[in-house]
Amino acid sequence: MSSDNNNFKEVIERALGPVQEFLNDPGVSEVLINGPDQIFVERRGKLELTNAKFPDEDNLQAAINTIAQSVGRRINKDEPRLDARLPIIEGSPASGSRIAAVLPPISRQGTVISIRKFTASKITPADYIKYGTITPDAWMFIDLCMFLGKNLIVSGGTGSGKTTLLSLMCSRIPKGQRVLIIEDSSELQVEYEHVVRFETRQADLMGKGEVTIKDLLKSALRLRPDRIIVGEVRSSEALELISAMNTGHKGSMGTVHANTPEDAIIRLEALAAGGDAKISEKALTSQVASAIEIIVQISRYGDGSRKIGAISEVRGIDEKGKYIVVPIFEIKALKRLPNGMLEGGIEPTGNIPSFYQEIVDNKINFPLTKFQKPLKVAG
Ligand SMILES: Nc1ncnc2c1ncn2[C@@H]1O[C@H](COP(=O)(O)OP(=O)(O)O)[C@@H](O)[C@H]1O
Ligand SMILES: [Mg+2]
């Protein structure tokens, strides 16, 4: 380990001393600091209040300042929010963690920090099936969408598992392509041969040097990508992503914050419309509709589990100008078991994807029967 790394490790250890035990605890996935006196942790998807505290608010602010500085970012009165990722350093607490913070008086109870730990033990498709996140057939369907290069959006709330799912999907892109990944902070764990990664940059103290996702998307288009992946689509860069999808970058993907596939596509349109481009609403709707082919909805449920709730196909717009979003797989009902866990999963809806012939032509073994609604046994 280099002395730089050693130094970094010590700095973070000192700054985050009061929550060190949680950072070292592999069972904890997230540490949530709500001011110096209240610290929660997430274990197996459930929140637990801890007894840990920071000595006082000054101490907590000093900690977040140190962390921001250590990764070349800032948090202060003028810029009271931070969104950063710590580098991956072996043996360092919070290695690779994503840190978000808001300072008072914006946050009302002192400095608020969330530390989402980087899970070195990666979730695999097998885990997905074991945890009940998806069924083998529905996973196979996602896999074949990757193979066929469908343009796809992952939709879900915060912490629902969007980034994890996008990582898994990226690893299923067929060999031989050039994949460009654009993120605010590098988070996607992608096992793929030919990947080029970009990360955005904040403006400096003079307000210069900012590089946004939108900027990076524009550059990306000139760098001969086969597919473009945007970690989180949060603002007007949605328009560039949609254009990329419509101009031959088959198999491009991104995530968006929404609660249903219908909301996801409407949100994408709203984000795209927020830019400075002059494009009529009607033209935009039809561009979005032709760009997006598949929307995968993932959610975090009351029992702490993450489940894929719907895999839907976008089939253009109807005569009223509304998006036609057709579920191919969907969760119909979940049963609460005596232990509080939710049983059940995603099922075929009976709707057959419009690109079924493509599945056949590519000799993918996914028979029509897999789209049939399961028969319900009475009683
Ligand atoms: N299928 C899953 N089952 C259980 N935990 C999961 C699953 N997918 C993700 N997680 C965990 O949930 C947390 C949030 O995942 P992440 O993909 O970062 O969510 P998002 O990008 O939606 O905010 C991580 O700790 C991750 O390890
Ligand atoms: Mg994410």
Commentary on this structure:
Helix 1 packs antiparallel against helix 3, helix 7 packs parallel to helix 8 and helix 8 packs across helix 9. The strands form 3 sheets. Strands 9-8-10-11-7-12-13-14-17 form a 9-stranded mixed β-sheet, with helices on both faces. It has a 6-stranded antiparallel β-sheet with strand order 3-2-1-6-5-4. Strands 15-16 form a two-stranded antiparallel ribbon. It is of the alpha/beta class. It is built from 11 helices and 17 strands. It folds into 2 domains: 114 residues, Beta-Lactamase (2-Layer Sandwich); 247 residues, P-loop containing nucleotide triphosphate hydrolases (Rossmann fold, 3-Layer(aba) Sandwich). Helix content is 29%, strand content 24%. The site of magnesium ion (MG) has 2 residues, from helix 6.
- For the record, the CATH class of the largest domain is Alpha Beta
User: What are the secondary-structure elements, in order, as H or E?
Assistant: HHEEEHEEEHHEHEEHEHEHHEEEEEEH
Largest sheet properties: 9 strands, mixed
The total count of helices amounts to 11
Shape assignment: globular
Distance between termini? 62 Å
Beta-strand share of residues:
15-25%
How many beta-strand elements? 17
Helicity level: 25-40%
State the main characteristics.
alpha/beta; Beta-Lactamase; Rossmann fold; six-stranded antiparallel β-sheet; 11 helices; globular; binds magnesium ion
